[in-house]
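[recover] target loaded
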């Protein structure tokens, strides 16, 4: 992960054509590595749900399964639900409202006469600003509340939410700083890639690792 991020920063400043045309292009290495991280996150959620079923309460297992499907959704969106691999036609709705004319939701745009005109862009508002705020809360605020507020700790543990340790937070802050050195809007692809891998590593060894042990809870 570190090598890919550093390579992205380097090539964005020395060979922008390679960076945008090869590294962060659709179906490029960064996209498929991002897909791999999301797929592994989904697999880990479903695996934990399967082995912890006899030990944990229903809410815990349902939350794990729900998170798994969120990651599956992320995988599908990254590869336009296999459209470029399989080659199926884009439905009329997506031809009209998708800025890339592909079968995915994150590139939908409502309002404006053409794909280049301003309007409500799902990618910018929800997957950009909204997701950025959510990540900031998840990495910077929830770990503090988890340590200081017992009620928050109980709720997070019941929902099976893995929280970052200090070194995960530091890694994300470094990633965010490095991405700011990339002089192109495509820097978001590197941030997305690095963020997904940091989240995967965090899921393997979260701050609240003990909640994923096979310890029988009272029903």
């Amino acid at each position: 992960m570190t090598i890919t991020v550093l390579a992205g920063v380097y090539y964005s400043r020395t060979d922008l054509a390679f960076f945008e045309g090869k590294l962060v292009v659709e179906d490029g290495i960064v996209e498929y590595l991002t897909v791999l991280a999301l797929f592994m996150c989904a697999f880990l959620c479903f695996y934990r749900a399967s082995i912890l079923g006899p030990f944990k309460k229903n809410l815990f297992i349902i939350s794990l399964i729900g998170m798994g499907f969120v990651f599956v959704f992320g995988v599908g969106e990254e590869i336009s639900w296999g459209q470029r691999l399989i080659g199926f036609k884009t439905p009329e709705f997506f031809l009209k409202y998708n800025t890339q004319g592909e079968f995915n939701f994150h590139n939908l745009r409502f309002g404006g006469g053409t794909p280049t005109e301003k309007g409500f862009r799902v990618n910018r508002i929800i997957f950009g600003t909204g997701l950025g705020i959510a990540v900031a809360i998840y990495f910077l605020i929830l770990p503090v509340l988890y340590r200081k507020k017992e009620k928050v700790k109980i709720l997070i543990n019941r929902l099976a939410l893995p929280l970052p340790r200090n070194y995960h937070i530091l890694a994300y802050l470094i990633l965010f700083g490095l991405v700011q050195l990339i002089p192109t809007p495509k820097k978001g692809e590197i941030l997305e890639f690095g963020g997904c891998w940091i989240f995967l590593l965090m899921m393997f060894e979260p701050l609240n690792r003990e909640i994923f042990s096979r310890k029988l809870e009272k029903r």
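[recover] notes: The chain has one domain: 2-212.
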